[in-house]
Structures are given as structure tokens and as C-alpha cells.
Write a structure and sequence with these properties.
alpha/beta; eight-stranded mixed sheet; 10 strands; globular
Length: about 260
């Protein structure tokens, strides 16, 4: 199992192609967790920045022709360098533009992990689900483990399906994390914050356990923050960041609900 102290000592650099709505929250999450974030938009910087980075996170929440070209270039360079690549297919089922962008990216780049909600990953797994924009909305909850497993199998990657219970899979094993808080759903960008944290974890150890551990820590930070901010969802994210900064390995080991 990873150590939060190791993360903070190594301080891995995570390069981000961000959703323009959530850049600051993602950068803060990476930093408070123990990593070092870099956001970039100029494709000319790709090789220079990846030469110093230990992970790449691609968020398709603000995808356009330029950002897709940037993502493909960055992903291919990361693949050549052996740097883990985390992809968030935001609202992939909702528009033709997003579907085509993900298809082009997945054809050109090998992903280390795909992180999304039930609606997004159900689309990738070709399992019926009703999603609404960036929200998972509704579907058969008994299918969640299967969805995570199918996405991992189809794209030869790890999958992280987030929700009230999180499902993390390598295509064979499915692990679950039961930490979290409803205010994650209220605050736009919570999933994007986790994307960055997953990048930090993979930079330290590229494994299923690493992803489950990081997912559990983020969920635990939310669980503890929610107790500090009852009926104050606007104060929730600052409290989450404080918890990420304060959490220690003993607390993590005792309170992360990982199965």
C-alpha cells in the first residue's frame, strides 16, 4: 500500500490538459495531496513539459479541435516515455463531438486509467444507462461493478467509476471504496479533482491498488470535510483541501473503506 508521506516526499509533477471550468480546483487538489501541478494549453510545450512530468491527466470537459490535437500529441509522447495517462471522458454520451473526440483519442493513445461516473463509463462499456450532462443520473446499480470491469477490458486499462460507492477495476478484479459525501455531487469539478489525485498516485506506483488507495483518500477527505461543513456545501471544497493536506497514513489505514 502506498504511503502519503512518500507522495509528499517525492512530490511528482502532474501535467494537465484541463477542463477550463475546473483548472484551479484540480491544481489545488494535486498540490494539497502532495503533487506538483502544471496546466498547459500550447502544444509546442508538450515535449518539454513531459520531459519533467511523471503523469499526464487529460480532461475532455472543454474539448475542441485544438485541445484534442494537444491531447493526442501529449498522450503519444507520454506513451513513448512510459508516463501514465489518466483520461476523463466528460459527458461522452451526450454529444457527437465528445464521442468522436474520445474515439480519436482512444485510437491514438494507450490509457493507464479512465475515470468517470456511471453514465460516462456505461456508454464506454456499451451498457444501457440514462445520463444527463455531466451527471450519472440513473440506471441499474447492480451493473456498476460490471461496467467498471467492461471498460477496463475494452480499453486495456484501469477504470475508476465514481459515485456513492466507487468501483476500481483492472478488467479482472473489481475493488470498491465506500468513503465520500453527497456534497461531492453538489460541487462541480469534484471528479476532475480526483483525476489529478489519481495522476499523482500513478506517478508513485502504477497499479490497481494505487488507484483504489487514492480514490479512498479523496473520499475520506470528503467524508471528514462534510462533518465540518454541515449545510454549507460552498465551504465543502476548502475543507476537503484542508483534509487532504492534514491526512496521515495512520488515519488513512484506519478509515479508508476499501474492499
Amino acid at each position: 500500500m502506498l504511503s502519503i508521506n512518500t507522495v509528499r516526499q517525492q512530490n511528482p509533477i502532474v501535467l494537465n490538459i484541463s477542463n477550463t471550468v475546473t483548472q484551479q480546483r484540480v491544481a489545488d487538489a494535486i498540490s494539497f495531496f502532495g503533487g506538483s501541478p502544471i496546466m498547459f494549453t500550447d502544444i509546442e510545450e508538450t515535449k518539454d513539459l513531459l520531459s519533467i512530468a511523471q503523469a499526464l491527466v487529460i480532461n475532455l470537459g472543454s474539448v475542441n479541435e485544438h485541445s484534442l490535437s494537444q491531447a493526442i500529441e501529449a498522450g503519444q509522447v507520454a506513451n513513448r516515455l512510459g508516463i501514465p495517462v489518466v483520461v476523463d471522458p466528460v459527458a461522452v454520451a451526450v454529444t457527437k463531438v465528445r464521442r468522436q473526440a474520445f474515439q480519436q483519442l482512444s485510437a491514438a493513445v494507450n490509457f493507464t486509467a479512465i475515470r468517470g461516473n456511471a453514465g460516462e463509463l456505461a456508454y464506454l462499456a456499451e451498457i444501457d444507462w440514462h445520463s444527463q450532462g455531466i451527471d450519472a443520473f440513473q440506471g441499474d446499480l447492480s451493473q456498476l461493478s460490471l461496467i467498471a470491469q467492461k471498460v477496463a477490458q475494452r480499453y486495456h486499462t484501469f477504470s475508476v467509476l465514481t459515485g456513492p460507492t466507487d468501483y476500481i477495476s483492472d478488467g479482472n478484479i473489481v475493488q470498491t471504496v465506500a468513503n465520500g459525501h453527497p456534497y461531492f455531487q453538489t460541487n462541480v469539478g469534484s471528479g476532475d479533482m480526483l483525476d489529478g489525485i489519481l495522476g499523482v498516485a500513478l506517478a508513485i506506483e502504477n497499479s490497481l491498488n494505487s488507484l483504489s488507495w487514492a480514490t479512498g483518500i479523496f473520499g475520506l477527505a470528503g467524508e471528514l470535510a462534510g462533518k465540518e461543513t454541515p449545510s454549507q456545501p460552498a465551504n465543502f471544497i476548502p475543507a476537503v483541501l484542508n483534509q487532504l493536506h492534514q491526512l496521515d497514513d495512520v488515519t488513512i489505514q484506519k478509515q479508508v473503506k476499501l474492499n
